[in-house]
Amino acid sequence: MKPLSLKELEEIGRLAADNARKSAHAAGTFFSYSENGKIIREYPDGRKTEVAYDERGHVKETPIS
């Protein structure tokens, strides 16, 4: 088997992320990803929140408009 190119690896990663997003939403839960160094949750209804943790480890979600 020949090594994959960077373009092929990026496409495989994109397809895997799309599949994970669809699976999470079909299960009625959120999908998380990192964007510009921030953790984002995307809910099945389309809402997006930025996730942060306080000093005690509690989750704080801030809606993204």
List the defining traits of the structure above:
four-stranded antiparallel sheet; alpha+beta; 4 strands
Q: What does it look like?
A:
With 65 residues, this protein is of the alpha+beta class. Helix content is 32%, strand content 32%. Strands 1-2-3-4 form a four-stranded antiparallel sheet. The longest helix has 21 residues, at 6-26. The protein is extended and about 50 Å long. The N and C termini lie far apart (45 Å). The model has no long low-confidence stretch (mean pLDDT 95).
Task: Provide a compact summary of the structure.
The chain contains one helix and four strands; from the N terminus they run αββββ. It has one helix spanning 6-26; strands at residues 31-35, 38-42, 48-53, 59-63.
Number of helices: 1
Tell me the radius of gyration.
15 Å
Q: What best-fitting shape do the alpha-carbon axes yield?
A: extended
- Content of β-strand: 25-35%
Order of helices and strands: HEEEE
Percent in helix: 25-40%
Helix-and-strand structural type: alpha+beta
Mean pLDDT: 95
Q: Strand sequence of the main sheet, in spatial order? A: 1-2-3-4
Which stretches of 5+ consecutive residues score pLDDT under 50?
none
Number of strands: 4
State the separation between the terminal residues, measured CA to CA: 45 Å
Largest sheet: 4 strands, antiparallel
